[in-house]
Structures are given as C-alpha cells and as structure tokens.
Design a protein that fits this description.
alpha/beta, OB fold (Dihydrolipoamide Acetyltransferase, E2P), 7-stranded mixed sheet, globular
Length: 441
C-alpha cells in the first residue's frame, strides 16, 4: 500500500477511537467514519509497519447499521463519532472494544455482557464546554472540528441538556456585540442540575474586569443561570486555572443523584450523564454487597458521590482524594446527607492507603477505586492489594488502562469476578466499566 492509493475495503471491526477496521494485504486499515458492514472505496492516508489509515472516498455498499445523523455538524465536529450508527449497534461496538482490550492487554478470561444502555441518547450531558473564538462579527462559542481548532459546531450541540444549551446561547448573544473586549476569554463551561438550574464558568488567560459590569445583565438574560464565575491563572485541572472569582449570583450549586444531594463547586468533576450515573451507583452498591459491618475505601473519591452513596450500608467509609478542595467538599457532602460514618483524607493515594492499612480499625473489606482515564499508578495498585480487602470494585472510563491495571491486580492475588460496561456517553466511542475483583483464596 502507498499513501494516496485508493483501495476497496470491507469493514468488519471497530477500533477503540471509533474508526472502522478492515484488512488489506494482511494489514489492518483504520477507516475514519466507517462502520462494520460497510464496503467502501478509501484513500490511504498513512502507512506504518503494522497498520494503515484511510479516509472514505465512496461507500459502495452501506452497513445495515447506518442511519442519517441528526446533527448538521456531525461530519465536521470531533465530539461524536457514531451518530451515523443505530444506537443498538453503538452498544455492541462498545462491548467489542471492552472485550478486545481485556483479551489483548489483560490476557484474562471474563465475560463481557451487553452494555447497559443510557436512559437518554441525546440531551444527556449536564455539563458542556465550548471554546471562545474572538473574530469580530464571526466570534462565537464553538466545538472544534476533529483534529483541528476549526469550527465544528456551536451551542446547539444536541448532546447537552436543554437548560445547558439555552444558557450557553443566551451568554453568547450577550458577548458577541462585545467580542473585541474579550480577547482573553478562552472557554465557557455550563453545568446544569436536575432542577434545570445552571451555572456558567468563563475561563480566561487573564483578568476580565469588564465582565463584572455585565455579569448582572447576564444573569437576567439567562433565567436558568444562578451564578457566573470567572476562572483564570495557571492551569491546574483540565481547562481550569487556579483562581476562581464569583462575578454574580449564588456561590452554592446543588445537584441530586437518586436520593442523595451534593454541593458541586463550579470546577468539580461529576459524571455528565446523571441518569446513567444513578444506574452506575446502583451496580456499585450491588457489587459491594455491604452488610453494615464493612470499612469501605473510596479511592480517587472526588466530591464524595460514590462514598456517600455507600455510607448507609457500611460501618465506615474512608474517602481518599489527592485534590484537597475536593476532599473538603466530600466531607461537606457527607454532612449534607447525614452520613456521619464518613472520613476523608487529601494526599497521594498510595501513601494514605499504606498508612491506613497499618491501623486495624481502618483496614478495608471493600475498596472502590475510580481513577482518571490514565488509570491507577502502579504504586496505588500495590497499596490496594496490600490492604487485604476482600473486594475491589474498579470504575473505569478507559478500557485500555482498565485492562492494563486488571493484569496487575490479578498478578497480585485478585480474581476478576464480574465486569459490566455502561454507555455513559452515547454517540461517542467512550465506554464506562465497573469491574468486581475478589481476593483469591
């Protein structure tokens, strides 16, 4: 194969980033926009030693799983990869991605059951971030096109909840006539809660004193908006900087998951699919199988959602979180829900876990670990395994790092008993998994 060559490909698989996978002359070819079942003429864009990449020139025979994408920006925007696939097919693709990662990376045998479908396949995101592009009359909040900083879609994104879209559109209308004053603005994030209220965060590369003058107007123009924040300073988490300034509105923002209430700081991590998150919490509770006498560790616990959800069934919950403000908020959320048997520690997980394991009354019977996409540090895995916990429940948003880490857990005396994928992000290639491990012997 050569770059620029046109070949006919029969697509029969799917890759972890959503591309279709075909084989040509014994080599795997990853095809953007292709679905299993497609036969397509494609142009080779890259040729490596073990694989090639191609783009579709013409679909000769479409997959029976194809459908017309409802979003007009689907072809350009990098946010979705599978709006062109029927939802039942998306779920099967995600199951295959998980099963492939477990087989190739973890080298363990475990059934990967059907993916738990999301209660909503559009309008499910309670938080969305748009990029600000200051370009005079063409200024706007935008989602980037795949692989670039070009415009790929705007505030009408159909994955976002309606109150989130409405608020973003109202703020954009205010800022557009003043675009030349906001060259330092970088992003806007809008978060919504179950009650339909929203909070907005404007992230900037410096001070924007003019925002304080128009902030009250922004609250009046966007009736769902309860608070407007400015975030700046050196980046410390995602797109967020170190400094937070409340420009207008109420400082406290609350959301509800099942029967629990949580105060959510503006930049806090929270699952974006609220309804599916409630399903996830139920599965975690079932896997934990608590009898009221267990000490539970909630590692990478954030603002305490998982820990608080388990507190009523446990003797004690110990939350462990590296980011101190999140650990402090977790303690406040435990108090908000009347969970008096919770304690929270801030610091490096491996150190706190090793220290707690030395104390008889802190040794866990159950551990829930919910790391970032990069997975667990090897030292954290060692510390968790040394704790002697009977059950470890691993919550993952990345099948590749999940599989890598499961191999380490099994090498240190744990057996994978159950793995359940969840579709937390319909129309995308991302998939969440909850895995139950038990101490061998």
């Amino acid at each position: 194969m050569e770059i620029g060559q046109t070949v006919r490909l029969a697509v029969d698989g799917v890759a972890s980033q959503g591309q279709g996978v075909a084989r040509h002359q014994g080599m795997a070819v990853f095809v953007d926009g292709a679905l299993p079942g497609d036969v397509a003429e494609a142009e080779i864009c890259f040729v490596g030693k073990r694989y090639a990449q191609a783009k579709i020139m013409r679909i000769v025979s479409p997959s029976p799983q194809r459908q017309e994408p409802p979003c007009p920006y689907f072809a350009a925007c990098g946010g979705c990869v599978w709006q062109n696939a029927k939802y039942e097919a998306q779920l099967e693709y995600k199951r295959q991605i998980v099963a492939g990662a477990i087989r190739r990376i973890a080298h363990i045998s475990v059934e990967v059951p059907p993916v738990v479908a999301s209660p909503a396949v559009y309008g499910y995101r309670n938080r969305s971030t748009w990029h600000w592009t200051p370009a005079g009359e063409r200024s706007r909040f935008s989602l980037f096109a795949a692989g670039s900083h070009d415009f790929g879609g705007g505030v009408s994104c159909i994955l976002a909840e309606e109150p989130v879209r409405e608020t973003a559109a109202a703020l954009e209308n205010i800022l557009l006539p003043l675009a030349n004053r906001f060259s330092a603005l970088r992003h806007i994030t809008v978060r919504g809660n179950r009650q339909g209220q929203t909070v907005a965060i404007l992230t900037a590369a410096g001070d924007l004193p003019q925002l304080e003058r128009i902030a009250p107007q922004m609250l009046q123009t966007a009736p769902r908006l309860t608070a407007l924040w400015l975030n700046d300073g050196p980046t410390v988490s995602g797109v967020y900087g170190r400094n937070w300034h409340l420009l207008a509105g109420a400082p406290d923002f609350y959301d509800h998951f099942a029967s629990w209430s949580f105060q959510v700081p503006p930049g806090a991590f929270l699952q974006v699919n609220r309804a599916q998150s409630e399903n996830l919490l139920q599965w975690i509770g079932d896997m934990a199988a608590l009898q009221g006498r267990e000490t539970v560790w909630d590692v990478y616990g954030g603002v305490g959602v998982i820990g608080v959800s388990l507190a009523a069934a446990a003797r004690r919950v110990i939350g462990i979180e590296s980011y101190e403000p999140a650990a402090q908020q977790a303690a406040a959320n435990a108090a908000l829900n009347g969970s008096e048997n919770c304690r929270f520690y801030a610091g490096k997980a491996e150190k706190i876990c090793l220290d707690l394991a030395q104390k008889a009354d802190c040794r866990p019977q159950v551990i829930v670990v919910d790391p970032p996409r990069s997975g667990c540090d090897a030292k954290v895995i060692q510390a968790l395994c040394k704790s002697g916990a009977e059950r470890i429940i691993y919550v993952s948003c990345n099948p590749a790092t999940l599989a890598r880490d499961l191999a380490q857990f099994t090498a240190q005396g744990y057996t994978v008993r159950r793995l359940q994928p969840f579709d937390m992000f319909p129309q995308t290639c991302h998939v969440e998994c909850v895995t139950l491990m038990m101490k061998a012997g």
